[in-house]
Amino acid sequence: MAKFKKHILVCGGSTCHSLQSHIAISNLKAILVEKNLEQEIQIIETACFGFCSSGPVILILPDNTYYKCTSPADARMIVEEHFISGKKAYDLMLAESQIDGLASNPKLLASPKKQIRIALRNCGNIDPENINDYILNGGYLALGKVLKERDPQQTIDIIKKSGLRGRGGGGFPTGLKWEITSKSQADQKYVVCNADEGDPGAFMDRSILEGDPHSVIEAMAICGYSIGASKGLVYIRAEYPLAITRLKIAIAQAREYGLLGDNILDKGFDFDIELRYGAGAFVCGEETALIHSMEGMRGEPTFKPPFPSVSGYLGKPTNVNNVETFASIPVIINKGAEWFASIGTEKSKGTKVFALAGKINNVGLIEVPMGITLREIIFEIGGGIQNGKKFKAVQTGGPSGGCLTEAHLDTPIDYDNLIAAGSMMGSGGMIVMDEDDCMVSVAKFYLDFTVEESCGKCTPCRIGNKRLYEILETITQGKGTMQDIDKLKNLSYVIKDASLCGLGQTSPNPVLSTLENFWEEYIEHVTVKKCRSSQCKAMMQYIIDAEQCVGCTACARNCPVNAITGERKLAHLINQDICIKCGACVEKCKFNAINVK
Amino acid sequence: MVNIKLSDDKIIRIKDICKSFNNEGGELINVLHKTQSTFGYLPAEVQEIIARELNVSLAHVYGVVTFYSFFTMIPKGEFPISICMGTACYVRGGEKVLDEFKRELKITVGQTSDDGRFSLSCLRCVGACGLAPVVMVGEKVYGRVAPDMVKDIINEYK
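Predict the joint structure of the above. Result:
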């Protein structure tokens, strides 16, 4: 970065990419050329800064100024104001509150607030397509250190001592997993990186792979050295084309630099990485299912034991870790197990990346120390609920997790506390809901997902979840009874007890946690047939207020099912038996005469 | 047995794809990915050829194709429309947007319009949760879509 005076870092993460960040780059380039500045100012495409709702975002270094750059006019204004007149383009700058909350990157900001970046340390800081950038930021130092100074067991001991637990959701101690695999005897072992991020609303693994692919490659090599494997495989979703491209570039560069391949750093250690593609099956996040999918089969889980660390890919010992787990490894080696273990709570060490989304002001990626409270995340980092609405629930752990309420806001977040509260860590999706969300519908939404994604192997999961879904459907249609609620509960426990894999065992969690925390909403649905959030269409009624209606006929003309009758200039009436509750009439009424009840 | 009606040219291309993966049964998913990106979908006759080339049963190929949501046996429309139904999009009104698309196009999820121009599908999280609700038409992403924008989006492609 030396030769240029200033740098423009343009976010090329998927969200900003969708918002045409590549066009922002060409706009900026054109104006720099026009102003003869292209020798002084360099444009680098990085990955996610974490301000996903404001993209395309750019960051100017060393001034630490974030701008939103949507149009050619924006690009012009930024270049002219920031670089030429030396002021700032205030209109396009991101709000202070947003930056304080999200980008607490210690390298960029003097006072990090609440966040500590370990797994995301390089995301948005470096050019992910340039290995030199990674190396300049301390990359591959850990691999060198391990190969030169530590034997495999010592390396495993560091990871064990750090207290790192699997970030894919299960929370199994990573060091222990490595140790078990290292002790399995075989002529060939495998290191697998699980990048099949199927949890809807979670995008941390994608951001790491897009923003810092080398950290994962380096960690996989360290793992290979520790457990005695010479082959690594990344199982990645085909839906992440940008992450795949960047990973491919990174692997090719690492090979070129002799950091992958035979005799790495002259230490007689061979290791190489290949990619395997997922094809859209949530269950493939489960280790055994993932391994079957890599073998070209249906991704159905099988019974454990044998664990993959004993018999996995092609029957060989296989160590499967998640992207975020791997991304934390190089830092642990460099800074030491004690340092990592000093962050977090007693049983959950280090940090966790969360994808904050839903009805929250600052949508984006955050990395926080374990033990932080939900209140700090939602109201300080996330900037509170959108449109000044009231917080209702936060869903963690995706389809396997649960909904937590106001009562849990001050619980310190770690693996064990979340499970005790009826949810789970999961891979790190965190969806915030406000007073307009109906919790029965939310449970139904997750069950719909599980029904679709159940692989069908175990009866309780395949049929049980379908029945759960149907019961929830009945309740949201206003036809539920108290017995239905009992059935929901009983069936949920049966599914949990009798399913083979994690998907089935956790699939009723959204139902159980909403039953537990929002019992009165279920009761309202079945007894008074009322949905307090006006989400359940069947229980809604569109009613024309005869006082307000002037008889303009706009509603009647726009009703797709001709449910509205009435003479011109006289109050109209909606026939509730015909009405499909589409809301077209409300939109067309200029006199606010139609109410939803 | 499926009666193979594909042109010779297409058969050769499928065989080439299989060969590029050494005709190995374990590479089935990679072969299917490549084939689908070439032909757009995986009809029975294509599966038949792949099964033969990789020396696995047709049932196995069919089992894999139907297991993974990424693979499809129905041709997509010229402009495939996908509505994100991830949680973030759902809580921000993705379902209403989907209803509007269904109404405008008069097709339901998994179908292709009669003129072959549009097909409708749901997907699970494109990871652009900051833009929820999200709609994709081909490769183009539309963020913060409201039901009243649906007509305009469709008109862009008419």
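The interface with chain A takes residues 24-30, 32-33, 60, 63-64, 67-71, 85-88, 90-92, 99, 103, 123-132, 134, 141, 143, 148 of chain B (CB under 8 Å).
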